[in-house]
Design a protein that fits this description.
- Helices cover 23% and strands 33% of the residues.
- The protein starts with 8 loop residues before the first helix and ends in a 6-residue tail after the last strand.
- β12 (194-198) and β13 (204-213) form a beta hairpin.
- The protein has helices at residues 9-19, 30-37, 71-94, 105-114, and strands at 22-24, 46-51, 58-59, 61-65, 123-127, 132-136, 147-152, 160-162, 165-170, 175-180, 187-191, 194-198, 204-213, 216-219, 221-226.
- The protein is globular, with a radius of gyration of 17 Å.
- 33% of the residues are buried.
- It has a single domain, classed as Sandwich (Jelly Rolls).
Length: 232
């Protein structure tokens, strides 16, 4: 697994504060990306398959992994969570939220399971020409972790065209949209639903965040989604 990116808290916090997302360059190698894409036809590795058009989610499909997760996905989840837990707790303090996230993923998942959320949420997404993902939030129960990671597994301009990763922010004071450019193996950290931003008169306020993928014009696009809360 690639280790060139340093999970340095100040850098991540600064990027999330300034842009609402943080890039994790070269998180996976090309070979690791291809290995994950090759899992998609292996139905026994997944607990469910979702066809987006049947639910009004867009066009395309995705599959949720079953436990135990593939080793690559489990390592990513375990490696990234402790760093993001510190940021999540910082966000809670900014928003005067009393909840706190434990330092280990296993501790947080125990909380999920006590809340009746026991199904894994890491997933593989597959887009073909004409497919897209509507703007949405990945909430699967009462308990959620406020940050998640998407990793592009395909090569833009080679494996596919179009299919840009998009983020939108909405509050009573402003609306904002941004396209986040990714290369194969790059990850992006972004909010699941809300994030704190500085208020115009001091303090912090909440903004709603949604994410999606624009229409793929040609080729096939695959993404790994690393979500930290389990589902009900």
């Amino acid at each position: 697994m690639q280790t060139r990116f340093s999970f340095e808290n100040p850098s991540l916090v600064e990027s999330l504060d300034n842009t609402g997302h943080a890039l994790l360059p070269a998180l996976l190698s090309g070979d690791e990306c291809r290995q994950l894409v090759a899992l998609y036809p292996q139905s026994d590795r997944f607990r469910s398959r979702i066809v987006m058009s049947r639910h009004g989610f867009g066009s395309g499909e995705y599959q949720y992994f079953r436990y135990p997760l593939p080793a690559q996905v489990e390592r990513l989840r375990q490696r990234i969570y402790p760093v993001l837990a510190g940021i999540a707790n910082l966000w809670n303090s900014r928003l005067d939220c009393q909840a706190s996230y434990p330092p280990s993923l296993s501790g947080f998942l125990r909380q999920c399971h006590r809340a009746g959320q026991m199904r894994p949420t890491p997933l593989l997404l597959q887009y073909r020409p004409g497919d897209y993902n509507c703007l949405h939030q990945d909430l699967y129960g009462d308990l959620s972790f406020p940050l998640q990671v998407a990793i592009l597994l395909s090569r833009p301009g080679v494996d596919f065209e179009g299919g840009e990763f998009c983020l939108t922010e909405y509050s009573s004071q402003e609306h904002r949209a941004e396209v986040v450019p990714l290369q194969q193996g790059d990850g992006v950290v972004f909010p699941v639903a809300i994030r704190p931003v500085p208020g115009r008169r001091g303090g912090w306020r909440r903004v709603q965040v949604r994410h999606g993928v624009s229409q793929v014009s040609s080729g096939n696009r695959h993404t790994l989604g690393v979500i930290f809360h389990d589902a009900r």
